[in-house]
Amino acid sequence: MMRETDRPEGAPVTAAGEVTLYTDGASRGNPGDAAWAYVIVQDGSVAASCSGFIGTATNNVAEYHAVINGLRAARAFTRGRLEVRSDSELVVRQLTGQYRITKEHLAALAGEVRQWTRHFTEVRFTSVPREHPCIRVADRLCNEVLDAEGRRR
User: Fold this and answer.
1) Among 2.40.30.170, 3.40.50.10260, 3.30.420.10, 3.60.10.10, what is the CATH number of 2-146?
2) Ranges of each domain in the chain
3) Sign of the dihedral through C-alpha 110, 112, 118, 122
4) What is the spatial distance between Cα 78 and Cα 93, in angstroms, rounded to a whole number?
5) Contact at 8 Å (CB) between 35 and 26?
6) What's the rounded Cα separation, in Å, for the pair 12 and 48?
7) Interval 32-91: pLDDT, tens
């Protein structure tokens, strides 16, 4: 299941001309039902958001899927500089080389992220607190997907 909305509630903050991608992944159980979501902010306003269901996965896998899907979508907004903000310190630190990636399945997902970053002139990965308004929107989108999936069963 994939869900896209144009303007979710939130309080994005970016400078004019900047595109920022906020991502979140969630898993109920670890592993368990998992979802991803992103919010794209351009020129200080929410430009797009989307969420989707993965199936059974860990939280870290869901976080990587959020980044991958967000990068894919962000190409419609810029091919220049992009800042990716996530509340997953693990994913950010793995993608910036601060942490080694020891699990093969995460290394494969990180490789996919690197492939998508080639579509931009520059991509920066930054860790932000989960209380950030745009991360909270992405978290809400993940939970809505998981709630909907739970009702289907």
Assistant:
1) 3.30.420.10
2) 2-146
3) negative
4) 24
5) yes
6) 12
7) 999 999 999 999 999 999 999 999 999 999 999 999 999 999 999 999 999 999 999 999
Quote the pLDDT of residue 52.
Answer: 98
- The partner residues of 81 in beta bridges, in order of sequence, read 122
Token pair, residue 125, equals 């990965």
Q: Do the Cβ atoms of 68 and 109 come closer than 8 Å?
A: yes
| 50 close to 79: Cβ distance less than 8 angstroms | no
Residue in the block written with tokens 């745009």: 134
> Is 117 strand, coil or helix?
helix
Contact between 106 and 90 (Cβ < 8 Å): no
Confidence of residue 17 (pLDDT cuts 50, 70, 90): low
Dist CA 102 CA 127 (whole Å): 20
Please tell me the distance from the alpha carbon of residue 150 to that of residue 138, in angstroms, as a whole number: 18
CA separation for the pair 92, 99 (Å, rounded): 9
